[in-house]
Design a protein that fits this description.
With 494 residues, this protein is α/β, with parallel strands linked by helices. The chain is built from 17 helices and eleven strands. Helix 7 runs antiparallel to helix 8. The longest helix has 35 residues. It is elongated, with a radius of gyration of 30 Å.
Length: 494
């Protein structure tokens, strides 16, 4: 009975010299960033045994990969195999004898060859930044002798690969197929193409491999929809958020104390918005199986009327022209910045609103968009009754929802594009890059503008939310396939 091969399940051994990127390729291909499962390390010899890494759906194993320690003495191993065979080129039987009879003297070579002898295909990983030496030729010769389906993978780690053509020219003599793959930057489409390439070297297992690829595509589509749900949930909660504070008799008659209450409520509002965003990004990290990424606490984006904060509002959300169109589509969608429930209290309200300085001024007015800022008279609501309550949120600036959405899109793309083979911890920057929503088609922006209007009033429309969800799923798919350098809309677009 085979130790490494399961009947009916395609198996592929990942082979290569130490630190050529075998484990990083597997980590990215299988979306594993946990060193307890796949150890990715610059330390020589980190992988010392073979490890089975199955692709499982609904408790069914469809494909298995086997991580190996890699060759350590390929030239000596090649000579030992030739000695066992005698005249002519050795074959799989000779390689099997080598594993059984000479394995103790060649631990690493015997370990990696054993599953191949038992029936696994071969995925040979090379770093084309390294020169082609005799030791590599010996490895390829040994693998050719096995007669198993073989694919060479050029794991190009950076832009510079001075020996790429030399490798390509030589690999064709030893492998059925050659592919290029960057384990530190490969996105979903590249991982899927690598899985499809296995079909070209292993026709005998085509049905199982095709089923696995189909399920991987379905799972990714389900993740995209789950991510869209998370983003819409974040927007709904943030736009419906209100922070209240009671005005006592002393505060009613003291301008300074009213200012203090407004600033305290503003601080609480901002903190709650940041928490809503933070929880959403944690959910996205979980959906895409990332443990080594964190999201930057974006407090500076809400603070002060400085050039940095103003630049955030300029670069994110919609342009002035786009906001005008969106507002005309959505109607009066803004929420009141400051509501005062009072029995005829009007004295000093303009002063109270004007006292929202520093963080509140940048956050609520949008810094560079003063013409879209708060109108204190329209931002108040006077109610009958004896209670006096100060309510802050949501910002009256109509660009606020679009900036939240832009932030969510940037975080989504950073998370979904992150290769699991990268082992350094990464912090996602708060609000960098260019606007994504400015590049959306007008119909998509109109759909979101209508939905935003209901959210800001606290009455989101389910039908409009479904339309926004469908548009967002399409937008996420388009963005995944686009060039990583995201572009905003062309200058002058309405």
């Amino acid at each position: 009975m085979s130790k490494w091969i399961k009947e009916g399940v395609p198996a592929f051994v990942v082979v290569g010299r130490i630190n050529m990127g075998k484990s990083a390729v597997l980590a990215t291909l299988l979306e594993v960033d946990d060193d307890r499962i796949i150890r990715v390390s610059p330390t020589p010899g980190e992988t010392t045994h073979c490890h089975v890494l199955p692709v499982v759906f609904d408790e069914r194993e469809l494909v298995r990969f086997i991580d190996t320690p890699g060759f350590s003495r390929p030239l000596e191993a090649m000579r030992a195999i030739q000695e066992l065979h005698g005249e002519g080129s050795p074959d799989l039987g000779t390689v099997g004898r080598f594993v059984r009879e000479r394995g103790e003297a060649f631990d690493d070579e015997a370990r990696l060859l054993e599953p191949i002898v038992e029936g696994a295909g071969i995925l040979y990983v090379i770093d084309p930044g390294k020169p082609l030496r005799d030791a590599f030729v010996a490895e390829m010769e040994i693998l050719r002798w096995t007669g198993r389906p073989r694919m060479a993978l050029l794991n190009q780690k950076g832009e510079e690969a001075p020996h790429l053509e030399e490798w390509r020219n030589r690999l064709g003599s030893y492998f059925n197929l050659i592919r290029t793959f960057n384990a530190h930057h490969a996105r979903f489409e590249e991982r899927k193409h690598l899985m499809r390439a296995l079909l070209d070297i292993d026709e005998s297992n085509r049905p199982m491999l095709e089923e696995a690829i189909g399920l991987i595509e379905e799972e990714w589509a389900e993740r995209r929809e789950e991510a869209a749900d998370v983003i819409l949930d974040m927007l709904r909660k943030a736009l419906a958020l209100r922070v209240e504070g009671r005005l006592d008799e002393e505060q009613r008659h003291s301008e300074r104390k009213r200012e203090r209450l407004v600033k305290d409520l503003t601080r609480r509002y901002v903190e709650k918005v940041r928490r809503i965003e933070g929880r959403s990004y944690e959910r996205l990290l979980k959906i895409y199986r990332h443990h080594l990424m964190t999201v930057e606490d974006d407090a500076p984006a809400y603070e002060g009327i400085d050039l940095e904060a103003a630049e955030t509002w300029k670069k994110w959300g919609l342009s002035r022209g786009q906001m005008t169109v969106a507002a005309s589509v959505a109607g009066a969608a803004g929420g009141a910045l400051v509501d005062v429930g009072t029995g005829g209290l009007t004295h000093g309200i303009g002063t109270v609103v004007g006292a929202v300085g520093g963080a509140a001024a940048a956050f609520f007015k949008g810094a560079d968009l003063p013409e879209l800022g708060v109108d204190p008279r329209r931002g108040m609501k006077i109610s009958s009754g004896s209670g006096r309550t100060l309510v802050i949120g949501p910002p009256r600036n109509v660009n606020f929802p679009w900036i939240l959405l832009d932030s969510a899109l940037h975080h989504y793309l950073a998370i979904s594009r992150r290769a699991h083979g990268k082992r350094e911890e990464t912090v996602i920057a708060g609000r960098g890059g260019e606007s994504v929503v400015r590049g959306w088609p007008p119909g998509r922006r109109a759909a979101f503008a209508k939905w935003f209007g209901g959210c800001l009033k606290g009455t989101p429309d389910p039908h409009r939310e479904q339309t926004a969800f469908d548009e967002l799923v399409r937008a996420l798919e388009e963005a995944e396939r686009a060039d990583p350098a995201m572009r905003s809309a062309p200058a002058g677009e309405p």
